[in-house]
Here is the input.
Amino acid sequence: MEKLDKVTELLNHYIDKNVAFFTSRSYEKNISSIIDPYIPNYAKKRIFYYNNIPSNFEIKDLQNGLLFFKKNNIDIIFTVGGGSVIDFGKLVNFFGNNNISINDWIHNVNKKVVTKNTNSLIAIPTTFGSGSEATKFAVLYDGIKKYSIEHDFILPHISIIDEVFSKTLSNFQAAVSAIDAMCQSIESIWAVGANDESISYASEALSLISPNIVEYVNCDRKNSDKIALGSYLAGKAINISKTTASHALSYAITKLYNIPHGQAVSITIANLMKYNFQNNNHELLNISIDKINNRMAILLDSIKEKTIKDGIKKIKSIIFETGMTVDISKFDINKISQNVNIERLGNNPVKILRLDDIFIES
Ligand SMILES: [Fe+2]
Here is the structure.
């Protein structure tokens, strides 16, 4: 696992290159004082900063980033921040080095021309939850329309995971991010697309996150190294397996009710656990019953519980203790179902015919 010393080492290595730092709005206030001591003085004059990347950025934001990339002849990108900032750096690196139009790509034109994998993208997460530093996909918006751009060359080449940044987060920011990582590891274990490798990353992530997340959020980022590593491993897991129903539903919840991503995902995770593992209708299964039972055993083992009932109780209590509980009594389930991500829903181990089964506790 690389720590911030690696920044100095890399800048020394890329001595004659033009380097960009892609960062968020809070970079100057919170992040620069932590990272600056690792930037040698002589390297500073070759670093170009692109600050103020918004969350859930749109095509026009990305186009501005690409203009900056070209104008300054950027060779190496450091992308430093939360999931959106890292996604932004990933997409600038991908589109900038391959000279593909964003619109062509999202409308499926000219996809074959991607040839350049640059080995020049370094991701430094600062919020510990999205796992974006370990995935080959990135989210891009066109108005309210969401695109997930996916390609092997989008994966960052180096990830620097240093938990020191967790001190810059409020309890709420820490919770929203870490709960996303926890849900990603749970969903990854039961995903249709999972394999032995992704299941091993996901169960390790869950074993690191579940016993530590409550104190991490409420007690001054205690055990932040465990959460930072867990979040990275959860990213590696979903990079293979992808996410499932809780994520499929979360995007609409975020959009309709302005609930942050991790919190929106957590709304359905406990009910979904019950639905996936206590389903009596075998015709609804997307994977075999043996696989479902095996995944359930791995999940329960990762959270150190023996029964599904106790497992659900533990997940609910984590959501409550981290302040993530949401009142869903005013949710319009029909509206949510009209905006659901069908692809991710199909990756759930059990088919979902009625959203009521997931939102309303039986
Ligand atoms: Fe997520």
